Amino acid sequence: MLIKLLPRPIRKYLHMTKRQRKHEAQLNLWVMPTIYIAGTLVLVSIPLLLDLYLDLPTMTTGFFNASASNTGTLVSVLVSGTLLLAAYTLNSILVVLTSFSSEYSPRMLFNFISDRTTQHILGLFYGSFVFMLVSFLFVTNSSRDYFTAVPIACTLVTLAAVIGFAIFVNHTTTWMQMHNIVEAMKTESERIIQSTLIDELEPYRSDEPGYTFEDYTGYTCKASSSGYVQLINFVDMIKQAKEDDVVVRMDAKAGDFVLKGNRLFSYRGPGAQGVQIEKYSKLIQIGHKRSEIQDVDMSMNKLSEIAIKSIGNDDPTSAINTFHQMADLMINIDASTTLHPYLQDEDEQTRVVYNTVTFSTYLHEGFGRIRHYTQKDYLLIVEMIQVFIRMTDSISEKNFPIIWEFAQDTILHISYSAFFRADRIRLLDYLKQLADVTGHKMDYYELERHLQPN
Questions:
Q1: How far is CA 176 from CA 315, 329, 416, in A?
Q2: pTM of the entire structure?
Q3: DSSP structure string for 225-269
Q4: pLDDT tens digit string along 252-277?
Q5: Could you state, in order of their start, the residue ranges of all structural domains in the chain?
């Protein structure tokens, strides 16, 4: 009952799962500064207790003592100075980041805000301002003639804020370099893959379907509202399916947009008639925005978006660097996950069937979008084929046909007249290497005839 009286944003956080709450907190600026401000209120009490209650000025020499008027003047100047420093810094950085985001990706601003270094330094700015403000209030309302700990503490805190300012400027200029942005995005994507595909799903995966109760009548559950599938609690779903003795087949995956009335999942088994749909519906979170918590597709989308924007900004170097990071991410996915759809309980009985994206999906989500935006800059296609050759040294052979078919389809949709002679020879050389590695030597000659019709 009391929860309904709280503001809507707070109620939203209370209804989230722990995993969602942690993810959303990282995307907001108020969490870390709140922690710093709370710590500051504790920290500022130390010099105030030393001066106002333990009478520290009487125990020190005159060199360390400052009169009340001088202390008040010092603290008032530091209050306005720290506030001005924080405001000027944030204003300048936001202007630059907004312009930078419009050129490359609107997600950059959110990535910068969610960066831990950014949040810690902003917390330091807010904390230092609160430290000065509280000190100023106590000093101006005190009847003491001298202070020792307060002016020293305020000076040290201001020095910390100045150092934080220098670190923040250096951090921002370093972070805004395109290769660092792409590297940070790839690292975040690897963390999502580790937590979702490996830590959460891999222990339950099986390559054999086992008995999936196909001879029982199936029932369906439809979405009660429209939105993006943000989170699926697979562990609890497996436990609930075991308790009900059913097999759940997911029709929607994390990141999918579902309309009200669309199928979310179906279930069948000996206990299907007694299933309480609400127990399973609570395990599937649907919201108004797409979330990265379990959405591995979005990892490739973010990187491909950077490459596309780089192409539009005539920045092929950044686009090529993005190709390399995308290839590294795909190798990571191929090496660390099996992508089998069957999730089993401890008795090796299939309980959930979840069709995750395949290697082909990742390839088309990433490079498939990019090739549509290369326009006449077909040198990037040459670089893309070169990246595929490097990938074949690290990925499993079962994915070789997927890479070759993608490369073949790409080349067949390019006019031979788009290349200069030297570039055409270079591309054919790379295609021959790729054909040899992937076992498609005969298919290479079709591409050669396409690029050299005469």
A1: 15, 21, 38
A2: 0.77
A3: S-EEEEEE-HHHHHHHHHHHT-EEEESS-TT-EE-TT-EEEEEES
A4: 888 889 999 999 999 999 988 888 99
A5: 2-176, 374-454
